[in-house]
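Posting for a labmate who doesn't have an account.
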Amino acid sequence: MEKTNGFVDKRYDFVLFFDVQDGNPNGDPDAGNLPRTDAETGMGLVTDVCLKRKVRNYVQIVKNTQKPFDIFIKEKAVLNSLIDEAHEQKDVKEKVKGDKTEAARQWMCAQYFDIRAFGAVMSTGKNAGQVRGAIQLTFARSVEPVVALEHSITRMAVATKAEEEKQSGDNRTMGRKFTVPYGLYRAHGFVSAHLAAQTGFSRADLNLFWEALQKMFDHDHSAARGLMSTRALIIFEHGSALGTANAAALFDRVDVKRATEGSARKFSDFRILLDGEPVTEILKLIKLKEKE
């Protein structure tokens, strides 16, 4: 893949496939935590924010929040305190007023993986500016319509004495959970060499990002999400920073066909194809020629 030293100097476009079995890949809090769907087509949706969260969580586990791979947007973080920390650095404090924001921005980029990768708005505290990240992701969309099932669940306990008295000692709590029986999802992504140069996004960062996309679901299991797995990561590596082909044309080279009839309930019901040929490995790197 990429060497570990230096900044990313090539453009990348990629396609990510992942699936869910008997789980909720991305609940919508505005709809009672139902799995997100396109109301017109029934296709399942997973937001880019959800996917970025899983990447952040993986990096946080692997790097143990050690700088320069710390995570800015993490659970229970107080963002303004982190931004203020940048302004307390000696090199930043010594700058004249007009340069402090830029110096703080550079310091934040140097410390936090997710700022380099995905960008951040850091003008809410002492002002460290705004960063547009080197990586952009689309929503993931299922390749076929999904069905959201509702299940009643029972807990053989109650939370309060009042509930116990109301039930006369029966002590049961009823609840509901929602699952998708099976769904194969496809997302697209882009890595900009020009934005990487601005944020300091390195080749080591990029390799870690590819690793996270392949392994992030292995460290994100929960009763709600069921069984989720990365199935294929197809990467188009351009020969230059500007790129040698149109991203849409590259994505059109990747297709999904049904291998069985009826309702899909497992990954083997589908075939992922690149230029008409089956993709059998999780990671597939295509190095583009100067003119594709």
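Reply:
Got it, the structure tokens are right above this. The chain has one domain: 12-149+178-287.
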